[in-house]
Amino acid sequence: MEQQPVGPGHYDAEWIEDAWGARGNEELLREGPLRPRPRVARAMALCRLSAGLRLLDVACGRGEVPAIACQQGADGIGLDYSADSIAFASRVRRIHGHGPGGVMRLVRGDATALPFCDASFDRVTMLDIIEHLHPPQLENMFREARRVLKPDGFAVIHTLPNRWVYEFAYPLARRFYGRIPADPRSRHERQIHVNEQDIVGLSAMLKRCGLNHRLWLEQHIPAQARWNAGADHYRDTRDRVYPLMAGRLGRLLEALSRTPLKLILCNDIFGILWKQGPPPVAAGPLPWAPAERALIWILGG
């Protein structure tokens, strides 16, 4: 039976508020420097943008990434197939879409059939879209990203959750702290997270799509909790987890996440993808990630 794609109607104004919080959205629509969430800040640092580069953000959502690219002097093009997302991102563009040399542009389109020419972008970002696409769609998106990348360009990806966190670590956490919900996913996530990943399965798919890559795990839950302290309430698991993670327990989790336990504790999967050969010089030094690379080699072949 063919799997039906998640329709654009799921990504409406209610989803935008639930996903990022009312205060977070209001802050994004204010004049002044942008204050990205830790995960987004990390992804943008990995992009290593400079003036004159062209970045495509696939599934741009609120338009935060192309706006940041614009403020860093690059041209930021955001693509999304949700009308409500493009409408919100258009408001962001009016406020933040004119940087020192960079411009921000928005396109409504499909991530699996990008409406752009071959080899037309220096950077492609695919942040928090991977888990929303069924495997055939995801393969199409990766092949399209490869097509539109310049030969010396690269892509930055991020997805959460790390499936192993929810399968192994979260049940153990509930045994010691039963007040957290049985299912860590929000109501919206249960509807739209159709393809949650682990590093081994994701690496295998990237190989099939002809993309060289380096994948690794990072721990951003405590940093996100500290970033959000005293601000938004989300009406989901985050309201219970963030107060715990903002203090001593979060620092303990960060320490444990620097050990091989990171494989089941780190919820953020990051990656750099490129077309062929060694990693592009422009990507700079990539994380070595010995535990992740060993596991991919052992389980993925």
User: Which outline best applies?
Assistant: globular
The CATH architecture term is 3-Layer(aba) Sandwich
- Could you give the distance between the termini? 29 Å
**Annotated CATH homologous superfamily:** Vaccinia Virus protein VP39
Structural class: alpha/beta
Topology order in helix (H) and strand (E) letters: HHHEHEHEEHEHHHEHHHHEH
Rounded mean pLDDT is 93
Count of discrete structural domains? 1
* Rg calc: 18 Å
Oligomer status: single chain
Could you describe the 3D structure shown?
- This protein has 301 residues and is of the alpha/beta class.
- It has a single domain (8-300), classed as Vaccinia Virus protein VP39 (Rossmann fold), CATH 3.40.50.
- 44% of the residues lie in helices and 16% in strands.
- It is built from 14 helices and seven strands.
- The chain has helices spanning 13-20, 22-28, 38-47, 64-71, 83-96, 135-148, 163-176, 187-192, 199-208, 221-228, 238-245, 248-256, 262-265, 290-300; strands at residues 54-58, 75-80, 104-108, 121-127, 149-159, 212-218, 268-274.
- Helix 9 (199-208) crosses helix 14.
- The longest helix has 14 residues, at 83-96.
- The radius of gyration is 18 Å and the shape is globular.
- It starts with 12 loop residues before the first helix and ends with a helix.
